[in-house]
Specification:
D-Maltodextrin-Binding Protein, domain 2, 11-stranded mixed β-sheet, alpha/beta, two-stranded antiparallel ribbon
Length: about 325
Amino acid sequence: MSILTWTGYDAVNDQIEETLDGVELEISIADGSANMFSTVNAGGGEQYDIVIPNNEYVPRFIDADLAAPVDMDIMTNFDALYPTFQDAAETQFASDGDVYGLPVQFGWYAYGYDSSVLSEDHEHSYDVLFSEEYEGVDLTGGITLYDGYYKTIMATGLSLGYTEAFEGDTVSFTDEQLTTIEETLTDFKPNLLGFVHDEETLTQDYQNGNIVASFANRSTHVGIMNDVESVRFSQPAEEELTWFEGAIVTAGSSNKEASFRVLNEYISPETGAALSENRNIMNTSQDAMGNIDSEALQIEPGVLDGMIPFKPAEQDEEWIEMFERIKNA
């Protein structure tokens, strides 16, 4: 069986192959969800049995008739998913009464910070990311934002209070709101250390005392916290942007039944926990999370309440062009 996904899934290949008789897994790594979609849409639907993009891309697979309906009789671990992700499967991943995708792993974007500089009891808010000074702490040149148009534009919109833009099936800012977002990022850019997203660079900058706060994925910050004792991850007062990986079985797969059994293993108590610990990413299954020892991966279930799931951008091309203007300003 061939799987197109992210790094780290091969860590549980042996575990799954030992559990499921006759199953052999071959993992291919894609360069992002857009690459996964374009590959399958160009004819890879028969080459790959399973594809695991981020959640906002699953509807594209459904609309293009590239995903097979989930055999819920095989998904014996589905009921152990957090209610948030059961609901996501039955809404964002559904069409005409059928479910087409399975939430597997998840995380969210917020900011990490150096607690030796910015106190742990500071007022946690996205305002930290757009302030020259916060609660008496000089932040000039000590902030990094994510090097990607989608996450940074959405975070800026949240910091400006544009929550209504996230209420539909897409993220849709008005023209006036987009103008304000661009002006906010352009005006604040001289106060940034830079746009950075990779864990290695952020870790080095924290170790060198260059960063006070950084906007990036929670799993990225979990990795940083393993190396830099003073780094913490914030839970801001504003809504947080959550992502989850949505696994689909391709419509062209000749191994659909076995593929669904593999997906069921990714959210099983044992394999799901091992997958999360190997990737530093949380599992959508409550039973799997209950088997995880890593303190950095522990969450309070209530943290999922009110989170905003990633959705396609209504004006995607405009966002891309705007972010390029900001970076080049």
